[in-house]
Amino acid sequence: MARRPLPRILSKDSAQIARTQIARSRELARTAADSATDVLHPLITVTRGLRLLASAGRRRWADTPRDKRGPLLFFVASLVLLVALMPYGPLLAVIAVMAAAAWHGRDRTPPAPEGPDESQTQRLQALYEALVPYFSGADDPAPLYAHGGEWEKAFAVHEFDDAGRVAQLVIRYPAYFPDGEPEARARIEQLLTAKAGRSREYRFGWDEAGNQLTVTALAPLPADVPAQRFVTAPGETVLGFTDPSEVPRTLPLSYGEEQIDIPPVVWRTGIRSTEPHLLALGHPGSGTSTLLRSIALQTLQYGDVLIVDGGGTGEYACLTGRAGVLAVECALPGALASLEWAAQETERRLIAINLARQAGDPPPADTRRPLWIILDRPSVFAYLAAADGRKDPQALLGVPLRHGRAANVTVVVAEQFDSAEALSDAVRQHTRARVVLGPAAPEQVEAVLGVPPHTTPMAHVPPGRGYARLGSGPVHRLQVPRTPDPYDDATSDADRQAVLELLPPRATAVEAEPAGLGRQTDPAKPADPAEPMDLAKPADLAKPAVQNAPVAAEAVPAES
């Protein structure tokens, strides 16, 4: 009888217990090492001194000329003999050697200076003087902020980095300052950013109860993490990486020749997801196409992907004909046909699931496989459709957006800021997972995410850098993994190879043969997203959607 292998993936509780035990073991080992160092400190000091004395003796012997080494050796031997013949001579010699070793082996590291140096004091005084007009009042009998005042009373904590810049600052402010008004906070944050240095990002923590403001300089997120397989469960998609203090989870990643743990921003999709669809906005070159490529490569492990590229630059040509990629459409007729099929497939899945539930059966297998609809710059197709008198392709997204969670259908849309007005109301309303990439004003970030960012934006950021918010959760700093187009000549060999290794194999001729793209409806009557669905209406379920097959233009009627 074969022995069943143990499960490789621990449950959530088991993983939490294992992490707790590991952390406790590390803490015990660290405490034991510190205790041993304190007990053995004299022995360590004497050993270090003996090593230094021995090194000095070897150097002295090497520097002595050859003709003088004989008399020197005779003198040392005579001195040893004299000490050996003296009363208590060996004991006194050992005590003298130990004392010399302890003296030479002492810790000579200069003590850390207490308090800031002169340049740091001038920087703190400048910050204090700059805050006086905002934190002072004419009727305050004992003002905390006054011109020429003492900054020590206002700054409770101050830390500097190795470059002499402010790393952390805890600022006390008077109780009458309107810290509940966003405009007043924004003025203080803008002032501190300018005085502390605009080349970094800062997090501001307002303690309204204690009248304290904590300013923390954030380390830059790693921008060169290559595309790779992430350790995630089905239904989890890694959008990028964030600060260690933001999420309690880390992922093991290959970072060059090293293995590191980086906290990810994980987007969960599926039937139980509260944010089943995503919208990404950014300026040209901000990395929205990189984000869509990264999402597509991750979802192809367990689902099917339909890609509609409005940019027409061939950013997704590497996915054409791959297993699991239903289609990569770059023209308006193909986009309309593919999205119309997606709406019909969503309706077919809903009816099949409803009939299975009425019969008390589990959902069919073809409805449990996730279907992803990825649109890059749909506004381009909107302009072309308006000029040609055709329907806007975004109108066909109403059914997948409204009923996609129940049908296991996910929609991902990426658009640029200058064309954000062309997004349909359905896209704006049903994409509750939001991503903003590239340099953007705080007003733009707030308009997309719903709340202002918790850090100061930078003027110059690498591609794929921005913010993410999943539903009503907190705003996270985000850095998208480096997933460039492998067919681009500007892509390095290492990045090209990393992306090519993640691509699924080419679909065979049998798999690529179109056997129908889901439940076929009346070709003369396309799916209307505004029309309510009759889930009790029997459907032709004998023609399920083809898995792992690229979409053929003949399968869905398209306007010529």
From TrEMBL:
Bias-annotated ranges (Low complexity): 544-560
Keywords tagged on the record: ATP-binding, Membrane, Nucleotide-binding, Transmembrane, Transmembrane helix
Bilayer-crossing regions: 72-103
InterPro entries for this protein: FtsK_dom, P-loop_NTPase
Chain residue ranges for the region called Disordered: 508-560
Span of domain FtsK: 262-446
The keyword DNA-binding belongs to this UniProt entry's keyword annotation: no
The name this protein goes by in its record: FtsK domain-containing protein
